[in-house]
Amino acid sequence: MQNDSLAQRYGRPRRAFALGRVRWWIIGVLGLAVAVAAGLAIYQAGTRVTSKDVSFAFPEKGVATVDFSVTKRPSATAECAVQVLNERFAVVGWKIVRIGPNSADDPHATANGTTTNHRATLRTVQDGVNGGVHSCWAVR
After folding, report:
1. Which keywords fit this entry according to its UniProt record (predicted)?
2. CATH T-level fold of 50-139
């Protein structure tokens, strides 16, 4: 009887929130976070472009050649910034090289068409001592 009078005076206590519902919300949010992370990882892996310097040469004054290989998805297009440095590590030549899609039977391609070899010829404003790829990125 005393409980009824307390309930009339102060109201009934709230029901405890169901732990099962909270558990399902937590599982759902974690599952969504894992799905988003997996999607981003797959997306990033598909657009990844890497390069490797092979060689450089200075065939004549004011000219440099840089040989490099690029690894990317065969259907993707990439751009690479190729540079020549002088003895003080200042950039004395710079060129953006566009690398289009390629196929597995491309004579310049290896590893099922994912890696291709390229040569860039650059003009320089001073004598260079080193040449290579500064960076590569995917073009959409």
Report:
1. Membrane, Transmembrane, Transmembrane helix
2. Immunoglobulin-like (2.60.40)
Cβ atoms of 50 and 68 within 8 Å: the answer is no
Q: What pTM value is reported for the model?
A: 0.66
**Angle at alpha carbon of residue 59, lines to 53 and 65, rounded to 5°:** 25
Alpha-carbon gap, residue 128 to 119, rounded angstroms: 17
What is the distance between the terminal CA atoms of the chain, rounded to a whole angstrom?
Answer: 75
- Give me 33's structure tokens: 């976070």
Q: For residue 38, which phi and psi values (nearest 5 degrees)?
A: -65, -40
Mean pLDDT in order along the chain per 10 residues (140 residues): 75 71 88 89 76 96 96 91 96 96 73 85 96 94
Distance CA 89, CA 86 (A): 5
